[in-house]
Design goal:
Strand content: 15-25%
Largest sheet: 5 strands, parallel
Structural class: alpha/beta
CATH superfamily of one domain: Nitrogenase molybdenum iron protein domain
CATH topology of one domain: Rossmann fold
Number of strands: 7
Helix content: 25-40%
Number of helices: 6
CATH class of one domain: Alpha Beta
Order of helices and strands: HHEEEHEHEHEHE
Shape: globular
Length: about 130
């Protein structure tokens, strides 16, 4: 279901008519249900694999992303290559994302993995949060 959401945004992103063609969706997760009422324009991703999925679909409204190493502000080489012209902010190491930094970025969608399910409630208070186990 999550990938259907990506594909629909990706196909519409090319024409820049995201908000005109987006339809509300409910995404059912193992641990919650998430209502998406509008197309996302400010995404924070908590796993670099989301960037690798979103880039080929021409979905580039990413504001923040986690890094793969503790203490590093560098993104993966592939992520940097795909998003070199975008202003993406580091929100910390993916094992310990900086919730205050995420709040500052004012995301309208957070994409996470089930590995950080312990943060789901806190993240959901910031923005709709979608994840997988």
């Amino acid at each position: 279901m999550l990938f259907v959401y990506y594909i629909m945004i990706g196909q519409n992103a090319k024409s820049n008519n995201i908000s005109q063609t987006f339809k509300e969706k409910t995404i059912v997760l193992d641990f919650d249900r998430v209502e998406l009422k509008k197309a996302s324009k400010h995404i924070v991703i908590l796993d670099h694999l989301y960037g690798e999925i979103l880039a080929p679909l021409d979905i580039t409204p990413i504001r923040g992303e986690t890094t793969g190493q503790t203490g590093s502000q560098d993104f993966s080489t592939l992520f940097k290559k795909q998003y070199k012209d975008k202003k993406v902010i580091s929100v910390g190491w993916q094992e310990n994302p900086d919730l205050e930094k995420i709040v500052e970025l004012e995301p309208d969608l957070i994409l996470m993995t089930g590995e950080r399910k312990d943060l789901y409630e806190d993240l959901s208070e910031i923005a709709p949060t979608v994840g997988y186990l």
